Amino acid sequence: xxxxxxxxxxxxxxxxxxxxxxxxxxxxxxxxxxxxxxxxxxxxxxxxxxxxxxxxxxxxxxxxxxxxxxxxxxxxxxxxxxxxxxxxxxxxxxxxxxxxxxxxxxxxxxxxxxxxxxxxxxxxxxxxx
Length: 129
Description:
Blueprint: H1 3-25, H2 29-34, H3 41-60, H4 65-90, H5 99-128
Helix pairs in contact: 1-3, 1-5, 3-4, 4-5
């Protein structure tokens, strides 16, 4: 396997691990409740944890500070926007009353977040070749 491919897969794996930690281990109820409001800190804190996690991953990969900052700001904005949209369009869908719709919204949300990491991985590789 070419070295660039191996590096790209490592970047993706690191970002996915960061996503798991930020979305499932470091997300608290007050963050979840705040995702649908521009005036509550929860959504901002959650997106900030994602951005900070990416800063750590990208720094360990040896990217330049300005590049890391650019990725972190972009991820913060995209992650917040996706979560805000899900809160507005999907929070009214109950897992007990409409399980298929609930899981479709959840799946779409996760798909879009993971697509963000595919794009980030691609751009990181471009920065290093």
